Amino acid sequence: MIKRIGIWFTIVTLLTLAVLPMTSYASTGDQGINEKLGLPIVVYGEALSPEQKAEVKELLEVDQHDQVDEFTVNGQDLNEYIGGNPNANMYSSVKIIHKEDSGLHLEIVTPDNITQVTKEMYTNALLTAGVENADVLVASSVKVSGHSALTGIYKAYDAKGVKLDKERMQVASEELDVATSIAKESGVDEAKISELLTEIKKEIAEQDPATKEEVEQIVEEKLNSLNIELSPEDRQRLTDLFEKMRDLNINFDAVKNQLDDLTGNIKDLVQDEGFWASLKNAILSFLEAIVNFFRNLFS
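Above: the chain's sequence. Below: its structure in token form.
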């Protein structure tokens, strides 16, 4: 009997490890101070209490670095960078590690507390703003929409002497607003909206539209190809958004590989729904088998 229990314990352990969610975080391992790229940067939301700040520090693994540059972001920063409410409470916090020719990698460490903005939405907006070659971690100790995290990232770059284009930052913030509000109002999954934005950007990079009518045509084509139904108002919002990007002459060719990677990640996310449903059923069946085993064992 002891041998049988030992075998079952091994099976339970292996299966438990197999079904635990495998979360892939942006690489933040400490490899000493990079004298060329500088120290990791951490920006805390000003509204955090001391206890919440300590929790965020742990979430962002700040202590694993010998040294970091630390800043605080507040409503005045929100107003300065993207024209937001200067009296807003800021909770979202970020850690940024500059890399060299590695692309942009972002992870939300507390997905349950970032209620509206997805990883893909952040990545899309940051590419619009001109942020490249960095590992970015986003965290909040309380439930927030997640919009203010962009301001923290902008402040981090500004504090390190990297001036991002203000118009691009504002358009990136508008992109985040449009993406989250369309997803909320239309009922279309956030991943599908992120895929739509990414595909439109890729097509703009490919076609280089010269007029607003051409931008509108690209938006319509991508809505049709992805089978997404939106109201005329939301279609117009998308057209207006990408028309602003066209006016800014954003070179999406420069980040096309990242846009391609982002599309693949989003598609994987959408297609995983069936996998997770199957996994849930498998786990329930497995647990039921364990209960029956021990019931028979001791009966």
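The first strand starts at residue 41 and ends at 45.
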